[in-house]
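Input record (one chain):
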Amino acid sequence: MKLKTYSFLFFTAFISLLILQLHNLSLFPPTKGFDAGGHIEYINLIKSERRVPLANEGWELYQPPLYYFVSVFLPDLKAVQWLGPISWLLIGISGFSVFRRAFPSHRFTGTLLLISLPVIIYLTPTISNELFTAALISLSLAYYWLKYPLDNPRHQLLLGLLLDLSLLAKATAWILVLAILIDQLRLRRPVVTKFTLSLPKGYLLFTIVLVASWFYIRNLTVFGNPFATSVDFPQFAITQTPVKRDLKFFTDLSAFTKLDLFRAHWYSFIPGTFFTFFYDGHNIIVPIQPFSKAGALLAVASLPLTLLALAGLIKLLRSQNHRSHIFILYAFLLLAAYIAYNFKLPLYSSVKGSFIASVSLPLVFFYLTGLQSLKPKLKNLTTPYLILYVILVLKNFWLLAKWI
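The corresponding structure, as predicted from the sequence alone:
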């Protein structure tokens, strides 16, 4: 394919996705989405009382405060929704900064795939800290990968500040902190072999402890649990019917054969997660339907990228590319935390692709790694495949007024 044609296709696809996001933002009600009312309550509480709430005061009031602090300075809820498209762009920038170094000839392919993932698309217009956190974690991951092995004290400091912001956005960021510590310990870097406030060795841990830990220390002091959430208190006990987390729940793949897009998360872990990551199984934008042909096509079209990502993951596990091991560490630790959360809350609402939205950058990195192993003829099909994928995303997620 000629370079001009290639560039035109990718530019057109990006502009199409941008128009999709702006269109959805214009129609999507601020009060719609995952627990939007709880997030709005948090914003209003900070505005009126000028304080960070405690975890036992409201449904979403256990969340770290950064997203809500930023929201307070915006004029209205419609303006708060703009944090979604900004986060979407930051995720794309994070990906491009990595892909242009790791896969120069596929930097646009990877970036376009990253910003067209359904979980990213349907989270964009919502008032929620999920995509905001995914953007900060993606920036932190990208910066760590770019500055690996993190010998420069200035790089340690800047990464620490990025991690601070991530930790003050959502507790999920502690998984990234753990992944980085494990990666650095594996390399036996002095920055984490002992805690010291002497410069430069203590920059990374010092900035994390200094800026971000106050929120979690407060929880530990007040509730005896640094990660206290609303469901830990009886007044917020969930009334959903529990679904037993047994071997069948974690191995049942029948929803794939039935293409049970909107119900899989009620009874199966893998298809439920797949259909809420690569489709809108929790119907944030797309309404529940008996069967969606367009949704089924998108789900089927997501299988090749998933399989290629698995192949890339296996290739990375076998390689000596230590720089990229952070993506593997973060992905596995996030998956482990996600499974643990499902045991803690064995409910249909706990199977949710949005909980692992921050794995999007590692996922596309794995995909591009797998892509390098394809034969030239198959590799030439990746551009048409990606354009088709974007078309299916546009078809499925173009918000219609009658859906609201």
